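call fold(seq) -> tokens
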Amino acid sequence: MSGGVTLSKSTFLHGVQCQKSLALHTFHPDLRDPITVTTQFRMQNGIEVGVQARLRYPGGSVGRVPDSYDISLKRTKDLIQSGVPVIYEAAFEAEGVRIVADILERTMTGWRLIEVKSTTEAKPEHRWDVAVQVYVQRKAGLDIKEAALLHLNKEYVRQGELDYQALFCEVRLINEVNDMQREVEDAIALCKETLAAGAVPEVPIGPHCRDPIDCDFIGHCWEEVPDPSVFDVYYIGKKAHELYARGIARIEDIPHDHPLDKRSAFHVEAHKAGETIVKPDEIRDFISALRYPLYFLDFETFALPVPPFDDLSPYGKVPFQYSLHVQSEPGRPLRHYGFLADVGVDPRREFLERLLEDTRGEGSIIVYYKPFERGVLNSLAETYPEQVPEIEQRIERMVDLLDPFKQRAYWHPGMGGSNSLKKVLPVFASELKYGEMQVSDGDQAMAVFVSLAGENDLAKTEELRQALWEYCKLDTLAMVRILDGLRGIASPDP
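ret:
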């Protein structure tokens, strides 16, 4: 390879997905998409799972030495020769490829490789991850007899101290990865050939940009795609790539007779017409079913791979915040209620008790995408069965503000084919903006709240908590403004 470039496991996997991605990572890393708070949060979650996985295989030593791969190689070799039973982060290099193995376990017949993933299932792409490690380790002289993938057990429910045997599931992969060794060798050769050329190959965009994972260079590779484009068509899926490959990039250019899902076809035809679609009778029916007082409600939750509290499974949703705007009668001023948990404690009981108190009585509880709030409440009902009657009463009162948009009683070109709150809001209240906020979406809210546990700066903590309050509060205020807009459409001024 030119310039002494060496493949790492991650760059190899980029090459398996797309040779252009491999070259961009190697030669133009500055073109990567910015790393978001949400991405950092997911990376930290992966690290945490790796740390917890070691407790399933105790008594090990760490082979990797930060910032020095050569020393890591030597230390790993010394640990192998010393007879240690387990090595964490064992480093190997062979044929221009470097890998770091999560866990190596010595057995009576040889070594067993365990690759740790923070998913709740084994995925097809994980085989490449394990297969290249086996390839490099064997070429480096290690006798690998077994290889397994370790993933989180979605059926595990925490009760008391973590049970590391039950928290994880092992999937034996040695037979599959043995069969893949020739494929791995060929893929390594192709990656080396790409890097030896010293240039970024021309690879058109396609499904591989997001399969099996989102590429780090979508912003760069997709910069010529118009906005909006065929990829923005509602529920179009992979058919968008088929259109784009035919040179059809704009929604306006999709042929009238092109076969599409009826939801996609509606969006295309409505976009071409460029006119607002309004069904006043359906909107009136929706509004007339509402009962005062109106409660506009939104939840925020976090979900961690390793359950932090009892009665939780991996990635179980923990509600930590709600915002509630209440309107007692038409035209009356709004009252705002809310809850934002302290970090480090299980917030669920207090969350539920406060919510039940704030929503006591009758009246419609308006949410946006009812399955989410309903699912959170049903989960709380399982944890606190004594509250089931109260919880069921709140669920029965729920009304989904998404329904008029989902049922196409209202469609506006500015929504871009999406019914999401953030796409609908600008049509009704353009002055309310998420983009200018420090916390601007649910994933970011989750990451920020969890990060507070490690924040020692009191001023910074207060700043972030205030940002969480403002974000969640805007979600419910947005619903108020959207309903006001629908009411005006259904009953226009004379």
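The mean pLDDT is 95.
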